[in-house]
Amino acid sequence: MRVIVTGGAGFLGSHLCEALLKSGTTVVCVDDLSTGRLSNVDQFQDNPLFTFINADVSTGIDIDGPVDAVAHLASPASPPDYHRLPLETLAVGSRGTEHALRLALKKDARFVLASTSEVYGDPAVHPQTEEYWGNVNSIGPRSVYDEAKRFAEAISMAYARSCGVNVGIVRIFNTFGPRMRPGDGRVVSSFITQALNGAPLTIYGDGTQTRSFCYVDDLVRGIVAMLQSDEPGPINLGNPAEHTVLELAEMILEITGSKSFIEFHRLPVDDPTRRQPDISRAGTRLGWTPQVPTSVGLRRTVSFFQSQPLEVRAAAETVAGAQFEGARSTSVIHSEALAKTA
Predict the structure, then answer these.
(1) Given Cys at both, which of 105, 150, 240, 272 links 122, Cβ 3.0 to 4.6 Å?
(2) What is the pLDDT of residues 62-114, one digit of tens each?
(3) What's the pLDDT score for residue 82?
């Protein structure tokens, strides 16, 4: 089996490449390194089953030889990245997705789109099922990512209906693990970086907003299962264990042993207040459920960050508080005070 992984040098893409290689699959990783890193795939460069192509799929994609599947993961995925690269985010979600679909059509290959829980916006339905159409602000600051993925889903289904492409869509909820960039702006990586640097952990809002955190190994198993199926989806992939952002901060402080404070800042525009996937469809159709508890995954992720001390220190300013426009500190709580009131 030969699989093309767009965005394969990114956090999630590199883990998918690794899992496929371990199964004996030939992998072609396509990445322009705008947010991915060569260091994520350096360990595969001597593997004869692995090929890296430095290219922007938004400008086209042409692969020689047979292709059995295309996993389209290419896209900036964290708020700082897609705010920094808004036009590129829209381009890879639109033109990039169509180029990947055309490749799948040409090669008669399975096509799996890595979509996102962001298509649900700030959901009015909880937990989120695949039938929910979402509550998205199409002109808000997060819209470049939300709408890029919604369009990617639409064009994927258009190619399925009009051209017969074997399309599958997975909607990925918050995922974390080793190879996350300390300064990528995701909540898990930001909290760990802040805690290891002894800096305040910055919470936007009052901390009661919820997320569901899925360890990367579990998530990748779901994508591989989707690649190996003919299931069209969409299918939610995520951990249904719901945690508040404040609970996450407290877990990371405990794991790291940090004495950092927790700061509260104003909630950014359109930031979703609740996120929890309904994964019934994934269980029924793919036989998939997450297996790694959040606490176990966090310990593994902290260990990875601890092995990258220079990069963690270098990211200190990037993940400092009030990074969102108009955000300002409203209160500060020490971790020991939190423990006394818990």
Answers:
(1) 272
(2) 999 999 999 999 999 988 899 999 999 999 999 999 999 999 999 999 999 99
(3) 93
Spell out the domains of the chain, with CATH numbers in brackets: 2-177+214-237 (3.40.50.720), 187-210+241-272+292-341 (3.90.25.10)
Query: What three-state secondary structure class fits 180?
Result: coil
Give residues with Cβ within 8 angstroms of 166, minimum separation 6: 104, 109, 110, 111, 160, 230
Residues 6+ apart with CB under 8 A from 311: 181, 182
Give the separation between CA 326 and CA 322, rounded to whole angstroms.
8
Instruction: Cis check for the bond before 76: say yes or no (omega within 30 of 0).
Output: no
> Which amino acids are annotated catalytic?
145
Identify residue 89 by its one-letter amino acid code.
T
In a 3-state reduction of DSSP, which class is residue 86?
helix
Name 121's Cβ contacts closer than 8 Å, sequence gap at least 6.
Answer: 134, 135, 136, 137, 146, 270, 272
What Cα–Cα distance (Å) separates residue 189 from each residue in 98, 174, 186, 318? Answer: 31, 12, 6, 11
CA–CA distance from 68 to each of 2, 18, 63, 83, 172 (Å)? 5, 17, 12, 34, 22
From the list 98, 97, 75, 99, the residue with the least C-alpha distance to 87 is: 75
pLDDT given for residue 270 in this prediction: 59
Write the pLDDT tens digit of every residue in 226-256. Answer: 999 999 999 999 999 989 999 999 999 999 9
Q: Write out the two tokens for 208.
A: 């009661």
Cα-only R_g, the chain: 19
Distance CA 192, CA 182 (A): 8
Reported pTM: 0.91
